[in-house]
Write a structure and sequence with these properties.
- By secondary structure, this protein is of the alpha/beta class.
- The chain has 28 helices and twelve strands.
- The chain has an eight-stranded mixed sheet, with helices on both faces. A four-stranded antiparallel sheet has the order 1-2-3-4, sandwiched between helices.
- Helix 5 crosses helix 26, helix 21 packs antiparallel against helix 27 and helix 22 packs antiparallel against helix 23.
- The chain is globular.
- The N terminus and C terminus are likely disordered.
Length: 792
Amino acid sequence: MDADPQPVTSPRLPLLAAVFLTALSVLAFEVALSRAFSVLLRFHFVFLAISLATSGLGLGGLADYLTGRWLHRTLSLGAHLSLRAAALAVLYPLSVYLLFATPLAAHLTSVWVVSGICILPFFVAGTLLSRVFAEYSQAGGTLYFADLFGAALGSFLVIGALQCFGATQVPFLCGLVAALAALALSGGVRHAPTRGVAVAVPVLLAGLLVANMSLKLVDLPIMPLRDDPAAKPLYRELGDPQIGAKIVYSEWNAFARTDVVTNARPDGTTDPHDDLYIYTDGEVPTNMLWFPGKLADLGPRLESFIGFRPFDWFRPGKVLLIGPGGGLDVLLASAAGARQIVGAEINPSIPRIVRRYGDFNGHIYDRENVRLYVDEGRSFVRRSREQYDLIYLALTKTATTASNSLALVEGYIYTEEAFEDYLQHLTPDGKVAMVLQEPALLLRTMLTALDALQHQGLSREQALDSLMVASVPEGMYGLGPYRHLLIVSRQPFAPQVSASLAKETVAMGFSPGYFPGAFEPAPFSWLTQQGATTPQFVTAWNQWQFGKQLLNILPRTDDQPFVVDMTFRLPTQFLGLLGGALLLAIVFSVAAMARQRRERGLATAVAYFALLGAGFMLVEIALIQKLVLYLGYPVLSLSVILFALLLGGGLGSLISQRWGVARASRVAGLATIAVVAYGVLLQHGQGPIVAATLGWDIRLRCLVTMLLLLPLGAALGMPFPTGLRAVGSHSPGFVPWMWGVNGLMSVVGSVGAMMIAKFWGFQTTLWCGWAVYALASLLAWSGRPLGTRGHE
C-alpha cells in the first residue's frame, strides 16, 4: 500500500452514524414526496418538481463552498454540523405541513411553490454532507460507505414505512431520523445551546409523529384541484359539484394510495346500491358494482356495456384478467360462463378493499372458479405456463414510483413484446381484448399489435384480418370511461365471422370502427392500402385529425415503453430544467475557477465530477427500468435494485479507502473502466440469465438481481470518494464545490436519461452511461482532475 502524503483524520463513529442517518432520511423523504405527489398530480409534473427539489443537494454543496472559509469564526465544526442536522430534521415535516395543511395547498400545481418548499431540506442536507466530506476528505471512502449504506437501507425501509404509515407520515419519521443524527453530532460539542437543541429536537419530532398519527394534522389536502390539467382525475372530480364525488375509504401502501369513492345523486343523496369507484393514485377508476349474487340480474346492464362484448362474442372457457380491479371484469367473465378466471392485480390494496366490501359486491373474488394473484400483469404472463382463451385488459395501467432518482413511470403491458407474450399464451383460437379510453391510444395500441402479429409470422394482410375495433358513440359511455374495444386474434377472422360481428355491433348501438373485410372506414382503411407504412399512416392521421403533426402514435417497444406519452418532443419544462442545471453548474464553476487562478487542473476536476454525477443517473435509471419486468412487483423491484447498487457502491467505496492518495488516479481510472467493462457485459449477458431464471421464486429472482448488480455497484462506488480524497489532499476547500457540481449534474443525468430513452431507448441510455464513464476514466488517468499533477 502507498502511504498517504498527509495523515488521515479518521471520522469518529458518531460522525459516521450521522452521515448514515442523514443519507437514509434524505432518500426516504424523496420517495415519500414522490408517493404523495403521485396521488395528486401527473407524472411529468411530479418528476419536474422533485428534480428541482433534489437539486438542492448540489446547491447546498456549492453554498457551503462559498461560506466554508467563515465556518470556524462562529461555532465549532461539531456545533455547525449538529445544528444543520437539527434544521434538516425540522424541515422534513415542516415542508409537508406547509404544502398540505396551509393555504399553500391551493397552489400545489405550481412547480415553483412545490419545488421551492421541498428544496429546503435537500439544500440543508447538501450543506451538511459536503462539509463533512470537506473536513474528512482523506477518509472519503469510509464516509461514502456510510452515505451509500444509509441510502441503501433507506431504499429498503421506506417501503415498509409507506406500507405502515403512508406517504404523509414518512416525513415525520425522516425528521426523527435526522434528529438522531443531530444528537450523535452533538456528543463532543461544548456549546450548551447546541446541545440543548440536539436533545429537544428528537423529543419534539417524536411528539409530532405521535400527534400526526392520531390526529392527522398533515394529510393529502381535501382542497380540490378541479381546473388544472396537472391534477389527477380524482381531484378534478372532487371539485366538480355536479358529480358529487366523496371519498369513503382510503388505504396507503408502498405502491399507491387507493381511494374508494361514491358519487352523490343530483339531490345530494347516495344510494347504497350505487356503484363504487376505486382510484389508484387518483387515476382513472375501476368500477365495483353492487352484486347481490345473481348473475341474471346483471344481464340487461352488461349487454349494453362494450366491455362485455368479447366475453359474449367468444364465450371463453379460461380467462386471464390483467388488472381486474374492483371485480367488474370477474363479473363479465362469470356472466359469459367462464370456467376458470385468473386475475393478476398489481395494486395489493385492491383485493383487500374488494373483500372488505364483500357484502356489497357479492364476494366476487372468493368465487370457486376465481384465482387472484398480486403481480404485475406482463411479468405474470411471461412466467405463466398456462394457455388462455381470452386475455382481457380494461383501462389497465402499471405504475412505478415517480421519482427522478428511481425510475420512469412507464409500464410494459402495451408494447410489441407484450403482445407477443400474450399471443404465445393463447389457445389456437384465443383472443386478446383491450378496452381503452382515448382514440389516439387506441390507434397506437392497434399499430403496436399489428407489428407484433407480423413478428409472429403473419403477413400484413393476415395481421390486419386479425384485428377488430368497436367504439361507444358519444353520449353513451355507460360504465365510466370504457370507450373503445380492440380485439387481437391469434388467427385471422373468417370473413363471415367479421361480417356477423359487425352487424351485431351496430344492432347493439355501438360504432363499428374496424371489422376486416366487412367495415373498414377511414382512418383504418388507410392501413389496408397497397404500400401503406406505419409512419405514413401516423402522418396522414395527424393531418386528417389536426391539420398538422401533433401526436406520436407510433408503436412502442420494451426499449421505449412510453405508451401514454404521445408527444414528439420533450416537455419544455424538462428542457428548461436540463439547461438550467447545466448552465448553473457551468457558470458557478467558471466563476469559482476565476477566483482560484493558481490551481491548475480545476477545469478537468470539475468535468470529472460532473461526468460521475450524470453517468451514475444514466446507468441507474436505465437499469432499474429494464429489470422491473424481471422481478414483476414494481415497488419490490425498485427496492431490490436500489439496495443492490447502493450497497455495492458502499462496499466499493470502503475498499477504495485502502489505497493511498498517490494512487488516486490509477484507482479511479481502473474503477471507471471496470464500470464500463462490467456494464457492457451485463447489458449483453443479462438476457440469457433472465430467461433461464424467469420462472424461479421471487426470492430467488431477487437474489439473482442482487448478485448481478453488486459488482457493478462496487465499481460505481469507487470513483467519487477517491476523487474527493485526492482533491481534499491538496485543497480541502474545493470538496464542497466538487460535491455541488456532482449533485447538479445528477439532475442533468436524470432528465437526460428520460430524454435519451424517449427518443432512442433505454439500451442507448445505458450506452451513453458507459460512454460517460469512459470519458471520466480518461480524465482520471490524466491525473490532473485528481490533483496529483500540476499542483502549485
